[in-house]
Amino acid sequence: MASIFSNVKMGPTIEVFALTKRFSEDTNQNKVNLGVGAYRTDEGKPWVLPMVKTVENQISADMTLNHEYLPVAGLPAFRTAASALILGKDNPAILENRVEGIQVQGGTGGIRLTAEFLKRNFGSDVVYVSKPTWGNHKTVFSHAGFSQIKEYRYWDAKNLGVDFEGLKEDLQNAPEGACVILHAVAHNPTGNDPTMDQWAQIADIIEARKLFPLLDCAYQGFATGDLEADAQVVRYFVKRGFELFIAQSFSKNFGLYNERIGNLCIVTKTPDVIPQIRSQMEIIARTMWSNPSHHGARIVAMVLANPAYFEEWKSQVATMANRIKEMRQMMFNKLRQKKVPGSWNHILQQIGMFSFTGLTQDQSRVMVEKHHVFMLLNGRISMAGLTTKNVDYVVDAIQDAISSH
Ligand code: PLP
Questions:
Q1: Which of these, 85, 332, 343, 385, could form a disulfide with 34 (CB 3.0-4.6 Å)?
Q2: Could you confirm whether 216 is annotated as catalytic?
Q3: Distance (Å, whole) CA 183 – CA 143
């Protein structure tokens, strides 16, 4: 007898997770995973931050802790500390009680909560995302019911940099009230951020067009190794007086990928609207996950609250960022030494975890199918997957992919 589900169709595969699966099943000894955006050591292994381990040991030894439900909006100490981390603890918005944090399921949870909130409380139906953008932005907003998912130009494939004129023109044409997702630091997938002068012009347009900025901040600390420097775009927008949300993720900078830890930081013009916004956010959270999980939030809160732990964690974030920067430099040097066609300057100009190599879809396919170098077909590689041991192999594969297409 046929199942009542027999009409259910296969959906499209989720590229980055499909790549990881293929990578783990691949028996080729040279295989390299440059797909997933997760930090790896120079041995190609995941890294549990020693600071996280220390705090986890403390948590497990503490017999007074329990597994009671958290409030719907999450762990208060985490929400306050996370908001202070991105805004700076002396930010006037915090001092004037114009900030709230809601604990969410990673950066993704913050983006989804924003979409659900805007749809219900703002009558919002239009969102603008960069072209290209992180693979989940469009789908999160469309699943939340946004009917108009628009793109603003971002990547200039010819010049391998930001298409700033295209970006401005597209945002200038956006309708009033549209939500605009901005990558707060280390744009995914291109690794190219606007300059501060360009950010000022973007802010002018957002202000003039009355758009609503959602700052997606998944890489604080990863771009430069400095948490403050990587927060400067967010702080600039707050200083300009925008009402905005920031979807903060602690997946990368704490290495807590599967703990799903995020904070949706809400900044308003006046404190009086905060309780209402929080109450609407709580209603949405209650229907989606009811209340968030405790473990990761506890880790982040304990580290951020303790000055000695905070310093240690900062140096571990810098360790990750610096290894990525070294791999960027090493890859560039080898591409030049081996005379692989192209200037490859863009590899050095890009920041953060990813590099948009400029490889075409066909060339990227050669990387995956022939050389077992797993990467996205749009040409994105995760620099964190490169090591001193595999960089030669990867560069040789690039050379072959380019010469064969
Ligand atoms: N936003 C961007 C730009 C990202 O790159 C990512 C993760 O790769 C996310 C959001 C999602 O972060 P999380 O894994 O914490 O949900």
A1: 385
A2: yes
A3: 20
Structural domains of the chain, with CATH: 15-48+321-404 (3.90.1150.10), 76-305 (3.40.640.10)
Q: Are 381 and 195 in contact (CB under 8 A)?
A: no
Contacting residues for 364 by C-beta, under 8 A, at least 6 apart:
375, 376, 377, 378, 379, 401
Residue 314 makes CB contacts below 8 A (sequence gap 6+) with 221, 227
Atom of ligand 1 nearest to the CA of 105: 16
Atom 4 of ligand 1 has which residue's CA nearest to it?
Answer: 218
Instruction: Tell me, using a 6 A CB cutoff, whether residue 130 lines ligand 1.
Output: no
> Does the active-site annotation cover 370?
no
Question: Is the Cβ atom of 133 under 6 angstroms away from ligand 1?
Answer: no
DSSP-based three-state secondary structure for 205: helix
Tell me if 146 sits within 8 A of 125, measured CB to CB.
yes
Contact predicate 144/120, CB 8 Å: no
Residue 51 CA to residue 309 CA, distance in Å, equals 7
Answer whether 249 contacts ligand 1 (Cβ < 6 A): yes
Q: What is the pTM of this model?
A: 0.97
At 224-275, the pLDDT tens digits run 999 999 999 999 999 999 999 999 999 999 999 999 999 999 999 999 999 9
Q: What is the distance between the alpha carbons of residues 84 and 348, in angstroms, rounded to a whole number?
A: 31
